[in-house]
Amino acid sequence: MRLEDLDYDLPADRIAQHPTARREASRLLVVERASGRLSDSHFERLGEWLRPGDALALNETRVIPARLEVRRATGGRVELLFVRPEADGAWRVLARPARLMRTKDRLATEDGSLEIEVTGAGDEGERLVRVTHGDLQATLAERGEMPLPPYLRRGAEPQDRERYQTVFARVDGAVAAPTAGLHFSGELLGKLEAIGIATARIVLHVGPGTFRPVTAADPRDHRMDEEWFEVDASAAATLNGARARGGRIVAVGTTAVRALESACDANDGALAAAGGWTRKYIHPPYAFRAVDAMVTNFHLPRTTLLLLVAAFAGVETTRRAYAHALDAGYRFYSYGDAMLIL
Predict the structure, then answer these.
(1) What is the DSSP string of 100-148?
(2) Pairing between β-strand 127-133 and β-strand 115-121 as defined by DSSP bridges
(3) Mean pLDDT, 10 residues at a time, over the chain (342 residues)?
(4) Is the full-model pTM beyond 0.90?
(5) How far is it, in rounded angstroms, from Cα 199 to Cα 239?
């Protein structure tokens, strides 16, 4: 397929800058693949579109307040995004401006409670750093900012500590939220459980590559960043059991889809326990093995997220759904509205 097949023009005021007052108050566009039917609904009515016996796959990754401002010895400010720890104890970071981060440079927080040294550079322009003084986790917890995506044209606010985090987030490690999960409240999850909807908890730590556009002339040539995923035996049993009893596996978000499909890759196509680093890249055409339905937000053009949705819903159906959402006034991106693809 061509990337331009999924291009669309989005007015800036349609990018949601803040979440809805209540998580489940967002709108929901229901896409039925078999008939092509599109239905306008609200997320709090999600249970009307699911069936007893279905199972939700929820990504339990937790966003860390990974953005931190430090200063060089000369006084210049550098903003760091701590992406992930390395096996040798170093950290992989993105720096702005990166040109001010040279090997052997030393940087520190304003109060000197944390000091780091640049130890090298990565293949994608990132830097490797090592903490030489202080406690990184404590510093991020106290002084770090939530790493909001660049299309939110504002700085992080106190409410983002809670709202740019799912209510089921448990395992620290993401630098971006699995945004389809942001629409669920504890109350809504309780209502779904009461009508016979099971939940399975899995993990995929969302990395900064989620914002990286596909720039290759042939989208098949795009290379995904590595991200850590875990599907344990309990989650696999819950999901397989739902299917065996006639229910559907409903992946909450593109990250859940990639975790489940990565587990299938590790088990000769069967959904079973697996974990590790994955570069799973899904684009049309693709034969899904572990997903029957999907909850997802509206995504930027020319991104791997939108390509995954098109692989699941079909390119033409995805085009029609986005055109309808634009005409009907839906809110887009991380704090925007959602789609349920059946």
Answers:
(1) G--TT-EEE-TTSS-EEEEEEE-TTS-EEEEEEES-HHHHHHHH-B---
(2) antiparallel
(3) 88 96 98 97 98 98 96 90 91 87 91 94 84 95 93 92 97 96 98 98 93 87 93 98 98 98 98 97 97 97 96 97 98 98 98
(4) yes
(5) 8
